[in-house]
Amino acid sequence: MTGRAERLLARVALTWLTEPGTWSVHRLVDQLGPVAALDLLLTGEAPDRALRSAVAARSAEGEARAVAEQALARTERLGARVVTPDDEEWPARVADLRALRLSGAARRVDLETAPPLCFWVRGAWPLGEALARSVAVVGARAATPYGTHVATELGYGLAERDWTVVSGGAFGIDSAAHRGALTAGGLTIAVLACGLDRPYPMGNAALFDRIAETGLLVSEWMPGAEPLRPRFLIRNRVIAAATVGTVLVEAAARSGATQTLNRAIGVGRPAMVVPGPVTSAMSVGAHEALREHHRARLVTGTAHVLEEVGRIGYDLAPPARAPERPRDRLDDEAVQVLEALPRRKAIGLERVAARAGVDLRTAMRKLSMLEELAMVVRRDDGYALAPPSPEPGTAVGRAPTTAGPGQSAAPPS
Predict the structure, then answer these.
(1) Residue range 26-67, pLDDT digits in tens
(2) Spatial separation of the C-alpha atoms in residues 152 and 107, rounded to whole Å
């Protein structure tokens, strides 16, 4: 076995012996390399008791290298591959997990946040290249129609602009973001919390097949691994670190999606939150994230997201503006003259000038301009505001009919 193949086998075995993200294992691999680190663990010389116990418990189910060989054979049958830091397609950005420290962390999933040892990948795209321009779109499984609509629009808009859409493949927001990207003909990646051959939820099996055809399925767990509850939070650190930024669309209180946002903030990524109705339970977690994290930015669409993750000075969102009205183009004196005209009658030029506070020459010039813009009409007795334009579908000179069925409309008075 070559050195590269031996290192690959050792990384797979280490991932089986202990859950991904275990800091003590990561440090051993850094210090000794994967092969020597595996030998150390298998001889019972792990540096701490918890790790020794975990290795002993898992070793009771099989010999680590034999399990790894079986996993590699199964991976090949699936048409998948294992990607390690030895490979050119390794996503270098996940190394930023070395700096991740979550405040108030007490649970194992919040403490054991080391970078991955390897990834299982299904799909043709090189993993690092696919993640180079990527945005995570995450949120509630029990999404509302509002949240589903927003996530679909974001997935479509980002993919249309050649950004990879990354999510976790779950029902709700995740699925909507993936489908939006697929509809746009773009690239999307589902990062799973189980083996690639056991996609979860099973109801999304057809979606996972579509993603694998044009994008990527990615996991830190070998084929056959079950989607255990803690693994979803372990997985979330990868979604946060491997992407350029994370968008939280909808989240209930204590949602796992908010933990992804926390991890994005922890590794210095742009963290974005879509606001929702204050009456919706599915927006509580999102709104709390905006209140608690001063670095979290409110976004309402693709343009805002691109402003956060795109090139400085280039991907700027256009300012929100109301529709422009004709009077918005008027100068101050023209506005003064327009405002000086009464609502229901005409007045002479001198009165207009006096009410507007301008001289006669200016009043005449501005009135002529306003007349050309069809905002003012000239009558025998002076100037008046032009009547409003009729609403579409309303006949000119006829009052709109308000009679009910079977009744004749009263003639205009």
Answers:
(1) 999 999 999 999 999 999 998 889 999 999 999 999 999 999
(2) 33
